[in-house]
């Protein structure tokens, strides 16, 4: 199975951003709910700062989630065939900004087929 590796700071920042997006909440609102300055929250979501355990708890409560959810490695942004998952770099540009997620299933399959064909062509059919 394809694995996504994160460093600790990026993982927390990405999880906070994801929860904000899911809750349709902005950093300013999160700041009001937690009492944590917006600039500090931006440092977390920009993967610059690392929140303390106390801050993680406040953020989790405000986002109606658990600290564990903010500390765990996120799920992959997309689910594709096993072959495609083994080469995640090939689709990185399509995953950025949710582009891949917005594609209809037939376009995703066409993209996978195309990239698998290129791989076979240049790997000699391996």
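-> sequence recovered:
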């Amino acid at each position: 199975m394809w694995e996504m590796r994160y460093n600790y700071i990026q993982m927390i920042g990405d999880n906070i951003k994801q929860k904000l997006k899911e809750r349709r909440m902005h950093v300013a609102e999160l700041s009001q709910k937690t009492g944590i300055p917006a600039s500090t929250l931006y440092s977390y979501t920009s993967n610059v700062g690392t929140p303390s355990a106390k801050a993680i708890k406040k953020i989790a409560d405000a986002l109606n989630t658990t600290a564990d959810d903010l500390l765990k490695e996120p799920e992959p942004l997309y689910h594709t065939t096993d072959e495609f998952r083994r080469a995640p770099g090939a689709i990185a540009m399509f995953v950025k900004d949710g582009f891949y997620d917005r594609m209809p299933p037939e376009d995703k399959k066409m993209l996978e087929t195309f990239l698998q064909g290129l791989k076979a062509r240049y790997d000699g059919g391996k």
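Residues 105-122 form the longest helix (18 residues).
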